[in-house]
Structures are given as C-alpha cells and as structure tokens.
Request: fold
Amino acid sequence: MINMAKPVMGEEEKTAVIEVLESGILAQGPRVKVFEEGFAKMCTTKHAIATSNGTTALHIALLAHGIGAGDEVITPPFTFIASANSVLYAGGTPVFVDIDPRTFNMDVSKIEAAITPNTKAILPVHLYGMCCDMGAIMEIAKKHGLAVIEDACQAHGAEFQGKRAGSFGTGTFSLYPTKNITSAEGGMITTDDDIIAEKCQVIRNHGMRKRYYHDELGFNFRMTDVHAAIGNAQLAKLDDHNNKRRANAKFYDENLKGVVTPFVPEGYKHVYHQYTIRVPNGQRDALREYLKGKEIGTEVYYPVPIHQQSFYMERFGSSQTLPATEAAAKEVLSIPVHPQLSQTDLETVAGAINEFMAGK
Reply:
C-alpha cells in the first residue's frame, strides 16, 4: 500500500521523548521554550508561542487581536473547518470569499467587496502548502485597518517573494501527525508584535501573568515538553523533508497526463503538504476508486466547502454561491507526496493515473 501520509519518526524523536520522561518535567517546560525559539527562527519572526493544536492556535490568535461578538473575519470556505470554526469560538462571524481556481487560495480580487464596517480581520489560508498572495492581502489590510491572521497550518517553510509563511501578520500552524513537521499533536503562533505575543501567552495559560493570579479569562491550551521534544527533532529535518516533497512534486509535474497539476506562480515556494490535482469531466471519484484498487492512497481535501456544511447552512443560510470553490470540491484529488516515497512509488502512482486517464 502506498499511503497518503507517513509521519517520519526516527531515533532522534524516540531519544528526545525518553529524555523528557526521565527528566520528570512533562508539562510545559524547557523543551517548549527551545521549540518556540527554533520555530520563530524558522519563520523569521520575533516570537513563537506553542499551543496544544492548530485549532487552539487560531482561536488564541483571534482572541489576542480582540475578535469578538459582532466582528467579521474574511476567510475562504475551501479549507478545513477549523479555520472558520475558530472565528465562531472567538464570537465573531466568518465571511466567505471565493477562491482562485488555479491556486485554491482566496481570490484577493474579491476581498474588498466583502469588507463592511464590522470587518476586523482577514484570515487567509495557505492551502496545501502554498502561500496566498500576501503582498495584495497586506496592502488591503493596511488600507482598511484590518488585522491579518495567517492560517499557515499546512505551510511550514512555505514562502511568498522570499518571505516565510507566518511572518506577514500573526501566523498560526498545526503540528498534527500528517503535517510537514509534527509534534504528535500541537500548534504554534508566530508574530513580531510584542503585545500580541504576550496576549497569546496569557490566553493559553488560564489568563495568568503571575502564577495563580488570573487577570483575564484564559484557557488550558499549553503544549507539553513531550510534544515539544518531538517537535524539536522534527524541526531539524524540515528543510530536507520539504525539499523531498518538492522533488516528488516535480516528478508528478513532469509525468502526469490528463489531469491538472498544481499551479505555482513566480515568486512562490510551495512545500506540498498536499499534491492536489484536478480531475476533469466528473472522473475524480472513479479515478479514486481505481487507485484504491491499485493500493494507492488518496484523499479529497475538501469534499464539502464550509459554506455548504449543514451546521453553517442552518446558522447562516444556504443562499451563498461560491462557484470556484464549489467546482474545486468536485474535482480535487490529493495523491501521495510525502518524503518517504520511493522512486518506484512515484512511478507506480503516476503510471496508474496515466493509465486510467488514457482509458477515459
């Protein structure tokens, strides 16, 4: 079986965890601090704040920017539901903007039309491992006085015009097992803003600035030293793993036929958390079944856009039509691109796709 994802866990991760267990310091401690420092360096930001997962990173970042009842946050509907749910957790309202069908990221040309007097932030999602057009987004945000909270949960090490994901506004990352690096479970917030960083630190730890003195409502969204130990070992491998993902993607780009391969504009560095093709003419599901029969794993990210999820339709109505998003949901298929694929694996995947498409 050629799996869709395969976390890379070596002796470094195992040794790091054992050292934590033997140290007796299991909760948030020195290894979390080291992980935060290393992650900030990777993102070229002043601060990184470790959290319990990517969703809590988003939640904390929104709260730190003061998002609350009556506030609107502009975001795309073609993403994992946590991007929009986190806005609801903070008390705000997600306002959906359609995607660019070439990149699957938010269509920046549609953002300003969605801005109202209640808009407080833009939450772009760097989907599949490629940054949004952060130049245009930052200009719009500056013009309208809006915060920018990057959902970089799939974009560890990705770049736009030489600048790292998570370094434009306030960045948020997931460290789930299938991500480009993992801490088994965890999240990270990145920022250059001292005030936002301090707010994030307080919110994640029960509102405490001083032990047992609670200045505001906070949460237990901390990371443990066990998770940070894994993250530290993984962080050292990120560049190598991303380079392997790019090499695998290049092979697919050069060899796949009959499908639409990922579009990467000039000046972007994609890290291929997912390698996502578009399968035309309603053949996506049939291709997926064919690959399953060949023991090749695939996944659809995402089959139902957020604005069409039942909960969101019940809460906000079902009248919104976002054609590029809805079309993508019917055609996208992610295929294995992880760094543990062999050349034989790549040839098998490409060969099976080409064989199916040639027969249609």
Observations:
- The chain is about 40% helix and 15% strand.
- The longest strand covers residues 47-51.
- The chain has a mean pLDDT of 97.
